[in-house]
Design goal:
The structure holds two protein chains of two kinds. Chain A is mostly helical. Chain A is 78% helix and 1% strand. By secondary structure, chain B is an alpha/beta fold. In chain B, helix 15 (377-391) crosses helix 16 (407-420) and helix 16 runs parallel beside helix 17 (437-452). Classes of the chains: A mainly alpha, B alpha/beta.
Chain lengths: 355, 509
């Protein structure tokens, strides 16, 4: 555990060093740039609040991918499930108007269901026709993307009358998430969801079966675990997390479905899961870290004139260094540990030889 | 005699924490058969790989005829006259015997093309010189495993090596093929070759070799003359304590029928018939052994019983419960199961010991099943500790990763897990495969104890001696059928071997 944390920090350090080299080659001051990055993402409570709010979709889609990868299903449908969750929340928010304490949970439920159903399509197709969920979830992404785009296109069934850009009308006010102090309520929801999924995964019988099946399906199956049913459940749950990310984005931000609402959140989430090696805790950690980078990027551009695209370069370097370095670093640390292990025995041998 | 090869103070470590060889010095003489024995993980294969240039030692030196040498690859070793036959046979099945033998060292014509005539002639000459019974023109894909092993040896002889290293050469052979291999190895020794061979089987070691080197946990215990030692002494050196070899089971009367398979047939996914109307009964307090050359339906039989394959016909039951179409979980209420492949079927190597120990218990054992939802990891750890204490597992903490355990300890955890399920029927598929002497002895003892406690045991094993020392009855499988089912007392190793190969009664002499 300590070794893993050390390896993660070392990778990030190396990546930042490589980023600094790139900056130097461009004639910039790395310390100034990194300083601006930190100041503008974590500098004060307001900035921290923005970072955390930006982390919500990253962490939730990251957890969606990590949960699936660690349990076996290869769910790469986070972008589609995200959009369907956002759509479901929007639809319910447009058709019902209740006071906030009822409305907010209802919309979140709709978002969870929207994502779960979209993932469920892939799970069903696998169950019925043995189609690989890997391909199907990817295909469903395009369908969700084009379907939601059609709905809100000017003149489309869900488009706001008279709007100049493709977007839906705004949802009822009860479904909008406010702030507690500087912090948006969606952050609390994210924390609760992450805690719940962590508990289920590590402390319950179903979670145990999912983990074992993710590591060795045949072992779990022979041990009596209902692996097919578990596959289904994990797919639904993974889809629900991505859907929740979409729903919360609608409820915390523009309060409506707008073109391009999914941005690149879901793919970033998959990337985070890969960097975190599908560990849930690490997924949350990297999600927050990447959110800080992305949040700081905009301010960095203003302050230091370094283009915000530099952050994409930095992200890519972090991914490459930590994924490529994972095997190498732990081998190196193992080697160091072994050296400590063998040295005393050699010393005693030298002693006996002297005697 | 001269020290032909001397290994001096060899130390080899593998990260993260394995010291495979610790200051090992051993010498080999010209024209001897020298066995290297030891338990799994004792360092036998590592030592041979260091000699053969596949691994580089951290410390120590190798001397050939008194001159220090350094091999950085197998090619260096072969050029110096040292060749190794690995456990896995690596030949091209479509090529003929002579083509496989010359591959990589082909004689060339003046124009640089393969000189087939000369190559074939050279191989044929080697076959004749060493008296091998091989057809140089037979495609390797069509000859037996034993013959393929000969081709591997021939490859080295063709390259004029003077030292042959054989890594568990008898592991892939049937009992009838072993004496022939030994005959050929003795002939090679008479021709001046030095033979180093690695083995688990002490009987073979004593029969074949001139000297024996015993390794234990990476250290050399001793090198002794085979003529002046005994099986018990070698075993004691290997394990570090006295080892009891399980004898014939005590005579006892088996009870009611527990497990019954009736006319079970199964096909594989290409619709080829793999099991044909297998009928088998196992009674309480009885061990029934399944013998057979690998690939004759044993694996399919196991899979049908445990529920990985649906039978095309027939019925299965335990204590009258019909399990023919039951779910795996339902079967596991009646069947304890040790799979032949630990890492693929029996465990998750990356999970912790505790997580591996509670599999199946997490649903069927009172302690865990009482709660529908929560899984108490402290209870799991306590359970793993119970397995450790009852089954003598050498481990430090239940949250250690399973892969940190040695093979023998992994098998003890799996066996303990299954025995603690306390089921009437035990399905044990190669439960001692790949285990060292000490662990094998332990697993066998447990089997006998379970039998005496009234369990019905079906034991699938490719080790005939194991079947003969444990089973009350032996059923022989040949091409998916049970061709013989007889009390162990009324048959012999030779007879069962014949059945395994021919699928019928030996003709009266």
């Amino acid at each position: 555990m300590r070794q893993k944390l050390f390896a993660a920090l070392a990778s990030i350090g190396i990546a930042l060093g490589m980023g600094a080299l790139i900056l130097l080659l461009e004639g910039r001051q790395p310390f100034e740039v990194y300083g601006a990055l930190v100041a503008l993402s974590l500098g004060d409570a307001d900035k921290l609040a923005v970072t955390l709010k930006n982390a919500v979709p990253l962490v939730l889609t990251g957890l969606s991918a990590s949960l699936a990868f660690a349990s076996g299903p290869v769910n790469l449908g986070q972008p589609g499930q995200f959009l369907m969750g956002a759509l479901a929340a929007t639809l319910v928010g447009l058709s019902i108007d209740l006071p906030a304490p009822l409305m907010a949970p209802l919309l979140m439920g709709a978002a969870l269901a929207g994502g779960a159903l979209w993932a469920g399509v892939a799970a069903l197709l696998r169950h019925a026709f043995n189609m690989s969920e890997f391909i199907v979830t990817l295909m469903l992404n395009s369908i969700a993307d084009l379907f939601t785009a059609w709905l809100i296109t000017i003149g489309g069934p869900l488009a706001e009358a008279g709007a100049l850009s493709p977007r839906s009308p705004a949802i009822a006010s009860g479904g909008r998430l406010g702030d507690i102090g500087a912090f948006n309520i969606s952050i609390v929801v994210m924390a609760l969801a992450a805690g719940a999924i962590g508990y289920v995964f590590h402390r319950t019988r179903p979670g145990y079966e999912w983990r074992m099946a993710g590591q060795n399906t045949l072992f779990a199956r022979l041990g009596g675990c209902p692996v097919n049913r578990n596959f289904f459940i994990v797919m639904l749950l993974s889809g629900a997390l991505a859907g929740l990310a979409g729903g919360l984005l609608v409820m915390a931000g523009p309060y409506r479905f707008i073109r391009g609402i999914g941005a690149n959140y879901a793919w970033d989430g998959v990337m985070i899961a890969v960097v975190a090696n599908s560990a849930l805790g690490a997924t949350v950690g990297y999600g927050l870290f990447f959110a800080a980078l992305q949040t700081g990027a905009l301010g960095m551009e203003l302050l230091t004139a370094v283009p915000s695209e530099f952050i994409q370069v930095l992200q890519a370097v972090i991914v490459l260094v930590s994924v490529a370095g994972r095997g190498y670093l732990s081998a190196l640390l193992d080697r160091l540990a072994l050296r400590r292990l063998t040295r005393p025995s050699l010393d005693t041998r030298a002693d006996t030889a002297r005697r | 005699m001269s020290d032909f090869i001397a290994l001096r103070h060899i130390t080899k470590t593998f990260p993260p924490n394995v010291i495979a060889l610790d200051d090992v010095s051993v010498s080999f003489e010209t024209g001897e058969i020298h066995a290297v024995v030891g338990e799994n993980g004792a360092g036998k294969s590592t030592l041979m790989k260091v000699l053969y240039g596949l691994l580089r030692a951290d410390r120590g030196e190798i001397a050939l005829h008194g001159r220090p040498v350094q091999f950085s690859s197998a090619n260096d070793a072969i050029a110096a006259g040292i060749g190794m036959v690995h456990q896995e046979i690596l030949l091209i099945p479509e090529y003929t015997v002579w083509q496989n033998v010359v591959l990589g060292a082909e004689p060339r014509t003046r124009w640089g093309a393969l000189d087939s005539r000369r190559a074939r002639e050279a191989v044929r000459a080697k076959i004749a010189a060493f008296g091998f019974n091989l057809d140089p023109d037979a495609p390797v894909g069509q000859i037996s495993i034993a013959a393929r092993q000969k081709v591997e040896i021939l490859k080295l002889l063709y390259r004029d090596v003077s030292v042959l290293i054989l890594d568990e050469p008898t592991a892939v052979l049937t009992p009838l093929e072993v004496p022939q291999l030994f005959e050929e190895l003795r002939r090679l020794r008479a021709g001046g070759k030095t033979i180093l061979f690695i083995s688990h089987h002490l009987d073979e070691v004593l029969e074949l070799s001139d000297r024996v080197t015993v390794l234990r946990r990476g250290r050399k215990v001793d090198t002794v003359a085979a003529g002046s030692t005994s099986k018990a002494e070698l075993a004691r050196m290997m394990v570090g304590r006295d080892v009891l070899f399980a004898g014939r089971p005590a005579v006892h009367a088996p009870g009611e029928v527990v497990f019954r398979a009736e006319g079970v047939s199964a096909r594989d996914d290409k619709h080829i018939s793999r099991l044909r109307e297998v009928t088998l009964e196992v009674r309480a307090g009885e061990i029934v052994g399944i013998a057979g050359v690998e690939g004759n339906g044993q694996f399919e039989l196991v899979n049908v019983i445990i529920g990985l394959i649906q039978p095309a016909a027939g019925a299965l039951s335990v204590n009258g419960h019909d399990l023919t179409h039951a779910s795996i979980l339902e079967r596991r209420r009646h069947i304890a199961f040790v799979a032949q492949d630990r890492s693929r079927m029996g465990a998750s190597l990356s999970a912790s010991i505790a997580e591996n120990a509670i599999m199946t218990h997490h649903r069927l054992n009172e302690t865990f099943a009482r709660r529908r939802w929560r899984l108490d990891m402290q209870q799991a750890a306590a359970f793993a500790t119970r397995v450790r204490e009852q089954f003598a597992v050498a481990m430090s903490r239940p949250d250690q990763p399973f892969r940190a355990l040695s093979g023998g300890n992994q098998q003890k955890v799996i066996l303990g897990r299954e025995l603690l399920l306390d089921r009437p029927f035990l399905l044990l598929d190669q439960p001692t495969r790949g285990l060292d002497v000490g662990s094998t002895e332990y697993v066998r003892e447990q089997m006998l104890r379970q039998r005496d406690a009234g369990r019905a045991i079906l034991l699938i094993s490719s080790d005939l001696e194991e079947l003969f020392s444990l089973a009350d009855r032996i059923a022989v499988m040949h091409r998916g059928e049970i061709v013989a089912d007889i009390p162990t007392a009324h048959t012999s190793l030779e007879q069962v071997g014949y059945w395994m190969l021919q699928g019928r009664e030996p003709a009266p002499a």
